[in-house]
Amino acid sequence: MSAVVTEDHRTESADTRPAEGPREGAFGNAVALSCRECGHRVGLGPFYACPECFGPLEVAYEFPAITREQIEAGPRNIWRYQALLPVPTDIESSPNTEPGFTRLLKADNLGRELGIENLWVKDDSTNPTNSFKDRVVACALSAARELGSKVFACPSTGNLANAVAAAGARAGIKTVVFIPSNLEQPKQVNSAIFTENLVAVDGNYDDVNKLASEIAGEEDGWAFVNVNVRPYYAEGSKTLGYEIAEQLGWRLPDQIVIPVASGSQLTKVDKAFQELIRLGLVEDKPYRVFGAQAEGCGPVATAFKADTDAIRPVKPDTIAKSLAIGNPADGIYVLDIARRTGGAVEEVTDEEIRAGIVQLARTEGIFTETAGGTTVAVTKKLVEAGVLDPTLETVVINTGHGLKTLDAVSGHVSAAATIAPSYTAFKATGI
Ligand SMILES: *Cc1c(COP(=O)(O)O)cnc(C)c1O
Ligand SMILES: [Zn+2]
């Protein structure tokens, strides 16, 4: 036991800070890192595990009074919520990717098909590298910079690598990104275009993640966005929750459906809603949070349906590669939130995921990747099962762009006909 403690302590104190420590105000209104399990607090630094119980650390704040008007006067990107994030007040003065403030679309056509009266799609496919990961990476980049990191890195299921490579390029910091070698080709190209250091690992995401933890422990000055700066990184997902509330006219939705890989995004959207309530920025009201997984990697959905807290890790086998985390770090908190809010965690087959992609495209003109197909398909399944209430206002999050997962649907949609360039030939198609 003591050997483990020593080992871990050495890893975590691998000091990526300049000798004088972070500058005053480097993390905005954040005051400490606090253990999610035991509440133990440590100072703001490159730490991610509680020194007392190894629980995950998360950012704790002392918020001043914040008004809607102050936020509305900010830039049309996530930095309008600077006061609510672990980033400095002068965050806009350093190059970053300025993600966020993506469209919240009233989805009446999809709503009609699913039987939901009041449906919205939060479309995060329009972020700079076409997934919600630009939000978390922008926050991680700020932390890496304030901690004096020399290398900006990540293990990734694809989208994260794209976002890290692009943000690092813009910031002029060396990037190294690690992916499973069986990843979709478009996602590989979308990283390789921004960085010379794309490393494909023969293994699944959980293997890649383990390797990253090992490297983080050995090398000085490496900021692995979702490992040793994970507490700061994860806060970026809160901006999805803030934006949805602001775009609804400073209101919370009744129901929200969110895809689950590690579970971080879902837990942070809930944290965002809770903060907005506490700050008096929205009215307190009940809302239900639903998680979406693929059957080929549904450890949280399985635990939810078995009514247990024991999440059994799985070996992923699904077309939803961006959700293919077999051992989800925040899965237990996803279960807590789904149960506390009266939501659920559900899973769908690869066939249903494909159908979800096509349905969103043909009803709303949005081409989503497999994660979004999963979310749409789970929404449909939950309505049919009578779990999701079709009379309540519902938001579905589309987290990524379909051009990155073309293979998932390319054999399933195609030209209706190939014809000679003549009117007769066209008429013969019956279109
Ligand atoms: C990473 C990712 C998710 C899930 O994120 P977690 O916070 O790990 O649950 C969802 N959708 C897409 C497209 C992603 O890339
Ligand atoms: Zn602890």
TrEMBL record:
- Region ranges (Disordered): 1-25
Swiss-Prot/TrEMBL keywords? Lyase, Pyridoxal phosphate
Reading the lineage from the top rank, the first entry is: Bacteria
Q: Give the EC number(s) listed in the UniProt record.
A: 4.2.3.1
MF (Gene Ontology): L-serine ammonia-lyase activity; threonine deaminase activity; threonine synthase activity
One GO term (biological process): threonine biosynthetic process
- Provide the Tryptophan synthase beta chain-like PALP domain boundaries: 99-400
Entries under Pfam families matching the protein: PALP
Q: Does the keyword Lyase apply?
A: yes
Give the matching SUPFAM superfamilies. Answer: Tryptophan synthase beta subunit-like PLP-dependent enzymes
CDD domains assigned to the protein according to its UniProt record, in alphabetical order: Thr-synth_1
Q: Which cofactor does it need?
A: pyridoxal 5'-phosphate
Q: Which InterPro entries match?
A: Ser/Thr_Dehydratase, Thr_synthase-like, TrpB-like_PALP, TrpB-like_PALP_sf
* Gene3D superfamilies (alphabetical): 3.40.50.1100
Q: Where is the composition biased (Basic and acidic residues)?
A: 1-23
**Chain positions with N6-(pyridoxal phosphate)lysine modification:** K133
Which PANTHER family does the record cross-reference, listed alphabetically? L-THREONINE DEHYDRATASE CATABOLIC TDCB (PTHR48078:SF6), THREONINE DEHYDRATASE, MITOCHONDRIAL-RELATED (PTHR48078)
- Report the family membership: Belongs to the threonine synthase family.
Return the protein name. Answer: Threonine synthase
Q: Which organism is it from?
A: Nocardioides silvaticus
